[in-house]
Amino acid sequence: MRRLSSVQQKIPCVFLTEVKEEQSRKRHCQQFQVVATENVNPVALEADIDGALATEKLDGTCCYITVYKGQPYLWARLDRKPNKQAEKRFKKYQHTHRSSKGFIWSVEEDFKTVPETWIPAHRVKHHNGHPVPDEHGHIPGWVPVEKDNKQYCWHSSVVDYEVGAALVLRPNADSEDLLEIAAVPLGALMEQTLELIGTNINGNPYGLGSKKQPVHCLVSHGSVRIRNPPPVDFQQLCSWFQESPEGRVEGIVWHCNDGTLIKVHRHHLGLRWPEKEAYFSERSVVIHVDGTAEEYNISKDLFASFSRLNGHRFSRIQDIQFDP
């Protein structure tokens, strides 16, 4: 299997988009809506979208695994954003010019401070030694997830740095219909981006765990394939999302052979998300977390809880529970 591209930047939509002056379906505070036209994006055509690998776009928060303190580490997404004054100036310019092109930033003065450990994402452009904001006015980047940082406690729950492993939800090697949760060496995930999903992430659209027993895990981007994807056609995609059981997903991300990533989100097509019964929630899962509680830092942590379920199979991932 070829190595899939990591998600470091905003991914373009498979269709050309336009802005409508109406309340966003995706962001409550946003007073405009970005919607798809029926015209396929030339970027997608140039990347041979028809020959691309279609994968499920999962609804969580983006993470990255790379070296920190001399060992593989989980990093959380942290985009550097403008301060209030700069944001106001930027929005006014956008409204006047209907575009952000030509807007001039002063990165040193216009942006909020970030931790010293922050690094910009791959392919962020630089000018005079400073990272340059994208068309949304953000500088995508990452911060390492350390165990004592309460802000990233749910990120921390899926990694054990002493053992050097992460809890990963992935397709089972022997059955494409079955998912598995496994403790995967962090070294085997180096330079990959993954989606953190679970109880306390983005409203938990997949129904994982509960307040009493939170369940979180990482899913490598591109690992969940769509077996019978619809053609890249506006009407056929709309029909697939609305009528096919496999279409009860947040969106599709196409991994093109040249490394280009292309996506479509249900909101682009004017469709609702989340669905009451997401397709991903209904999939069967088996637990493959070997070891004992003594191997992990805390007997009540997520690794130990899953290790006590080693070999157990659930008919749906939303049925995972630790107590009988």
Automatic annotation (TrEMBL):
The protein's enzyme class: ligase
Source species: Anabas testudineus
Annotated function: Functions as an RNA ligase, in vitro. The ligation reaction entails three nucleotidyl transfer steps. In the first step, the RNA ligase reacts with ATP in the absence of nucleic acid to form a covalent ligase-AMP intermediate and release pyrophosphate. In step 2, the ligase-AMP binds to the nucleic acid and transfers the adenylate to the 5'-PO4 terminus to form an adenylylated intermediate. In step 3, the RNA ligase directs the attack of the 3'-OH on the 5'-phosphoanhydride linkage, resulting in a repaired 3'-5' phosphodiester and release of AMP.
A Pfam family that the UniProt record links to this protein: RLIG1
Gene Ontology MF terms: ATP binding; RNA ligase (ATP) activity
InterPro entries, alphabetized: RLIG1
One Gene Ontology biological process: RNA repair
Catalytic activity, as annotated: ATP + (ribonucleotide)n-3'-hydroxyl + 5'-phospho-(ribonucleotide)m = (ribonucleotide)n+m + AMP + diphosphate
EC number: 6.5.1.3
Protein name (record): RNA ligase 1
Keywords, alphabetical: ATP-binding, Ligase, Nucleotide-binding, RNA repair
